[in-house]
Design goal:
The chain is of the alpha/beta class. It is 44% helix and 16% strand. It has one domain (7-62, 98-165): 3-Layer(aba) Sandwich (Rossmann fold). The longest helix is centred in the middle third of the chain and has 12 residues, at 100-111. The protein starts with a strand and ends with a helix. The model has no long low-confidence stretch (mean pLDDT 95).
Length: 166
């Protein structure tokens, strides 16, 4: 059996700062991990990007590929979008694909790639009426939405990702 491939797609919420530990946990659970980040998350982790790239063994993606670039990532068995900010959840649900993470996640719905997300938003943003509409849209599209705020339960997120490929 081949090693399952997890696309770990992180956004700019504080739990993204623990992404190296999450990759290690995923590896210990038997995942091959590809890391994608929003531009702001990549900026937050800028000094750690070389180590994270070494940890995954693949380039980290935080921008769209150019048309002439070959995709060096293997196909995803499942994608975990976590932590997922208010901005990313809404962009994804509305099909706004200006950045790599919501673009990949939106396309994954159409490709039938299993998706799990764990939003991480503050209470004020969670009360915005668009947020619940966006979560409902994602659920209706087959995305598993886990509750994560104020923190991300990475073990629960990885476990759910595993269930989505079984």
């Amino acid at each position: 059996m081949t090693t399952p491939v997890l696309y770990l797609l992180g956004t700019a919420a504080p739990p993204v700062l623990d992404i190296g530990d999450v990759i290690r946990r995923a590896h210990s659970d038997g995942w091959d991990v590809c890391l994608g980040l929003t531009p702001t998350a990549a900026e937050w982790l800028e000094d750690r990007l070389p180590a994270l790239e070494s940890l995954t063994g693949r380039p980290i993606r935080s921008r769209h590929r150019r048309p002439t670039e070959v995709d060096v990532w293997p196909a995803a068995d499942v994608a975990l979008v976590a932590p997922a900010t208010f901005n990313t959840v809404n962009h994804w649900a509305l099909g706004l694909t200006s950045h790599f993470v919501p673009a990949f996640a939106a396309e994954a719905i159409g490709k039938g790639i299993p998706l799990v997300t764990m939003p991480c938003v503050n209470q004020a943003l969670a009360q915005h009426p668009q947020f619940e509409r966006s979560l409902a849209t994602l659920r209706d599209a087959g995305v598993t939405v886990l509750r994560g705020a104020p923190d991300v339960d990475w073990d629960a997120a990885l476990s759910e990702a595993g269930r989505r490929i079984d």
